Amino acid sequence: MAHAFTGLAQQVNCPVVDSAISMCGLYLTGQATAPSDACCGGVRSIHQVAGDSAQARRETCECICRTIAMYSDLSDEAARALTRECGVKAGIPIARDVDCSRIS
User: Fold this and answer.
1) Which residue range or ranges hold the Bifunctional inhibitor/plant lipid transfer protein/seed storage helical domain (predicted)?
2) Are 9 and 59 in contact (CB under 8 A)?
């Protein structure tokens, strides 16, 4: 089912990313010591929507970068640890300084 969205990656990924990241706000800003279950569910949804297409993963990466750039108080350490903390094997890092063009 994850593949149902990949053809619509550009249209679907950013709203999914925005929603997922918003659920992680407390963790990403250091106000919580661990991501919530809702946050981790959102992180999983980001990677499901990205699917297997390198182009969709790059587009999803760009959405992630745009979304987390809105957090002036973002903890870079928490952002980088998010997928690990949620137990998601990620091909798309969650960080401000990612070169999305290198995602394959």
Assistant:
1) 14-90
2) yes
Q: Please say whether the beta carbons of 42 and 19 come within 8 A.
A: yes
Percent composition of the chain: helix, strand, coil (DSSP 3-state, to 5): 65, 0, 35
AA identity, residue 72: S
Spatial CA neighbour of 58 closest among 7, 4, 2, 10:
10
Going from the C-alpha of 91 to that of each of 15, 58, 94, the distances in angstroms are 19, 10, 10
The CA distance from 99 to 89, in Å, is 19
Provide the 3-class DSSP secondary structure of residue 94.
coil
Segment 52-81, tens digit of pLDDT: 888 888 989 999 999 999 999 999 999 999
Cα(67)–Cα(57) distance, integer angstroms = 15
Residue type, 90: A
- Give the C-alpha separation, 12 to 50, whole Å: 9
